[in-house]
Design brief:
The protein has 584 residues and is of the alpha+beta class. It is built from 24 helices and twelve strands. β11 and β12 form a beta hairpin.
């Protein structure tokens, strides 16, 4: 099948979807004509499927299907919907959830129609895989089932429904505007149109790595945080392969589960060849030594060697904070905390990757450590750590790579009265980070593990760093220690937090509610495995539900004296409630 200008349909499908993602109305006008004039029903399917995949646009997809000729739509009546999809805000979150749900099923979780988003999605995928359409109809209704059947039984219909029902930002993104397309003008065939789904792309050997690198959304829904489930799904697309080494999409995973074929995660296979440290770490005169316990430093990193990498800039060689030799369990905890942070609205985070490097013996990690303030003492500690890795782990070092927090300083170096301390958001941003670390059960919350900077546009950013997991026993011992769990944080800092709690109570409540929802849906088993956080969370939310708001609970945990808050305001914190009085 060919388009009006002789393009293959595979290319037209790919070009049209990339143009939708780019918000390029000239390109969508041309490519939709190439498909819609000869095959209008095929164009309607692309509009509805792409609405779900790249905008979580359930309402747009349903309206397009219902409002156009049922049996034989015309290209003219579809053009306003091409315009609408080109201009709506974009998110790939339904597809990310779909992939994570398939992994949930693969790991033996049956799903739950009344559980978290992933539980609901996994249960739905199970019904989809078993062709249990009566149960799907009972769960989602006749309207969604018609759409599901029309687009060749694509479960993204239900993934969108699950996400929209629990995420206000996606529910708010259901509106769209119909409009007129400009006259079609022939467009250049861009190289990234030839992805893994096209004939030429397959010949070129392009896989999910190329596809994900070019999955760029214009006008995204999520501008200040990572899309829901994105990092987990990307990792699975890149590393989850069948016994023949082939990459697996959701349909393949479900088919393989039915056939009981073996699936492997490449990074968990002991026979996998990991990249050498010399191929990844470009140690040079710009390298900065930072640590003594593990090999911790900043240097240029070749991220093209890391299959599951995530980076802000998209460049292949970028400056990274590197921690090499940490306990694998602790690194996974830090990675999950980073994923949790990046998913929370209003909490700053940096792209974080955990991978395995092969120690070549050609990089002198001891000398890198000696560049730090600890000198030779740091050298000895790091050399001992590397020797242990070589002896006990066969030279395979678990490594964390994080984008560098440029121009940042430790909270401990922020002085009372300086520009950061005096920033209007200092207390608010700090208390959010302290609450986050408390709720994740970090063992060492202090002023040394929090980084601060004022970003362009005078935006204050506070980054939670060096997150290590406290044991359940340690958490119980520190239950009453407040939001700090190690060295004390300056009273002046906590006073700023308390003032923010009083002045921005509703914002704190909203932040905590969002954090609780995300914890329950996605991170309870990752960060709070074995119920390690249950007691801490139970106390926090028990006090909240018994009459205190979240701000009142945090005020108590800050240990701030009520009469110290503000010059004109007195805040009386008692067991049952937090009251504000203005002194006249």
């Amino acid at each position: 099948f060919k388009s009006t200008e002789g393009h293959t349909m595979g290319l037209v499908y790919s070009a049209l979807q990339k143009s939708f993602r780019a918000g390029d109305v000239k390109a969508t006008s041309y490519w939709s004509e190439q498909l819609g004039v000869p095959y209008p029903n095929a164009l309607r399917k692309r509009i509805t499927q792409n609405s779900l995949e790249d905008a979580c646009g359930l309402r747009l997809a349903l309206t397009c299907l219902k409002s156009t000729n049922k049996s034989k739509p015309s290209f003219e009546e579809l053009k306003p919907y091409v315009f609408a999809l080109t201009n709506v805000k974009k998110t790939h979150s339904a597809a990310w959830l779909n992939r994570v749900a398939a992994d949930h099923l693969f790991k033996g979780h049956p799903g739950n129609p009344k559980g978290s988003e992933v539980d609901q999605a996994a249960y739905t995928l199970k019904l989809h895989s078993n062709a249990n359409e009566s149960e799907l109809r009972s769960l989602y209704g006749e309207e969604l089932m018609r759409l599901y059947l029309y687009i060749n039984r694509d479960p993204l219909v239900f993934m969108c429904s699950i996400l929209i029902s629990g995420r206000p930002e996606l529910a708010a993104n259901q509106s769209f505007a119909l409009g007129s397309l400009p006259p079609p003008v022939p467009q250049q065939v861009l190289d990234h149109y030839h992805d893994k789904h096209t004939k030429l792309g397959k010949k070129m050997g392009r896989g999910y790595s190329h596809f994900l690198q070019n999955l760029i959304l214009h006008n995204p829904v999520y501008t200040d945080s990572v899309e829901p489930y994105k990092e987990q799904a990307e990792y699975l697309y890149l590393n989850f392969k069948d016994s023949n080494g082939k990459e697996c999409r959701v349909r393949h995973v479900l088919d393989l589960m039915k056939e009981k074929k073996t699936l492997v995660l490449q990074d968990s296979d002991s026979d996998v060849t990991h990249p050498k440290d010399t191929d990844v770490l470009h140690v040079n005169e710009t390298t900065v030594g930072l640590g003594f316990k593990n090999a911790t430093f900043i240097c240029p990193v070749n991220m093209s060697m890391i299959s599951n990498s995530v980076t802000c800039s998209g460049e292949m060689v970028v400056k990274k904070f590197c921690k090499l030799g940490e306990n694998p369990e602790d690194l996974q905890y830090a990675l999950h905390c980073a994923q949790f942070r990046s998913s929370l609205r209003g909490l700053y985070s940096l792209p974080t990757t955990v991978t395995t490097l092969e120690i070549s013996g050609q990089i002198d990690y001891g000398s890198i450590a000696a560049l730090g303030k600890g000198g030779e003492k740091w050298r000895r500690g790091v050399e001992a750590k590397i020797a242990k890795i070589v002896k006990k782990q066969g030279g395979k070092a678990e490594t964390m790579l994080v984008d560098v927090f440029d121009n940042g300083v430790r909270l401990s170096d922020v002085t009372v009265g300086d520009s950061m301390y005096s920033h209007a958001d200092f207390g608010f941003e700090l208390v959010k980070v302290l609450i986050f670390r408390k709720m994740c059960g970090c063992s060492d919350t202090n002023a040394f593990n929090l980084m601060c900077r004022v970003a362009p546009g005078t935006v204050l950013q506070i980054l939670s760093a060096d997150e290590n997991k406290a044991s359940k026993e340690a958490l119980l011992r520190s239950m009453g220690a407040g939001l700090e769990t190690a060295q004390k944080i300056k009273y002046d800092y906590k006073l700023k937090c308390a003032e923010a709690l009083v002045e921005r109570t509703e914002e704190v409540d909203g932040f905590v509610k969002g954090m609780k929802r995300l914890w329950t849906e996605r991170f309870k088993d990752l960060i709070g495995e074995g119920g390690r956080m249950d007691e801490t969370h139970a106390r926090f939310f028990r006090e909240w539900n018994e009459g205190k708001d979240a701000a009142g609970v945090c005020m108590k945990w800050l240990g701030v004296k009520a009469w110290d808050i503000g010059k004109k305001r007195k805040v009386e914190v008692c067991r049952g409630e937090s009251k504000k009085r203005t002194k006249t």
